[in-house]
Amino acid sequence: MAQLTVQIVTPDGLVYDHHASYVSVRTLDGEMGILPRHENMIAVLAVDEVKVKRIDDKDHVNWIAVNGGVIEIANDMITIVADSAERARDIDISRAERAKLRAERAIEEAQDKRLTKNVVLRLLCNVLLTVLMSEIDYKKK
User: Fold this and answer.
1) How many CB atoms lie within 10 A of CB 32?
2) Rg (Cα) of the chain, in Å, rounded?
3) 100: Cβ–Cβ under 8 A, 6 or more apart, which residues?
4) How many whole angstroms separate alpha carbon 66 and alpha carbon 50?
5) CA 109 – CA 42 distance, rounded (Å)
6) Using an 8 Å Cβ cutoff, are 71 and 58 in contact?
7) Any idea what the CATH number is for the domain that residue 43 is in?
8) Neighbours of 53 (CB within 10 A)
9) Is the pLDDT of residue 10 over 70?
10) Rounded to an integer, what is the distance from CA 48 to the centroid of its chain?
11) pTM above 0.90, yes or no
12) pLDDT band with cut points at 50, 70 and 90 for residue 24
């Protein structure tokens, strides 16, 4: 029976290394299912999960969260290189929730800064418009 070899690598080392019958990933172009004898290719991954159906048990599925990265498929060998990757079983829920809160705060602060920047730009535009209008009025006199 044909099989895939799946390896997921981060700067910290090898995160995942197993044989599979099927792998599902999300690329920037959309969802992609990979079976043995898949065409060789390289694609950019979205921040999402990788689903791996293990060859040793049809009902056994591994889930790995990846922070984007690149997937290479070559001769039934799948190599994923990502900045970070974590198996579902290894995710620390409380740490993930704290990271989510930090990210939400960072988004709010970025939006506040953008809003402040937009307000300043509008005020500046109004000042410039007022100056221009006063110059036009001055020239009319």
Assistant:
1) 16
2) 25
3) none
4) 7
5) 36
6) no
7) 2.60.15.10
8) 17
9) yes
10) 6
11) no
12) very high
Cα 13 from Cα 10, distance rounded (Å): 5
| pLDDT, tens only, 62-72 | 999 998 899 99
Q: Are residues 54 and 84 in the same domain?
A: yes
pLDDT at residue 59, rounded to an integer: 85
Residues 114 and 86 in one domain: no
Same-domain check for residues 113 and 85: no
For residues 31 and 72, state if they share a domain.
yes
Provide CB contacts within 8 A for 43, sequence distance 6+: 25, 27, 28, 29, 32, 70, 71
Range of the domain at 124: 92-141
Tokens of 67: 């922070």
Residues whose CB is less than 8 angstroms from the CB of residue 20 and which lie 6 or more positions away in sequence, other chains included? 3, 4, 5, 6, 52, 53, 54, 55, 78
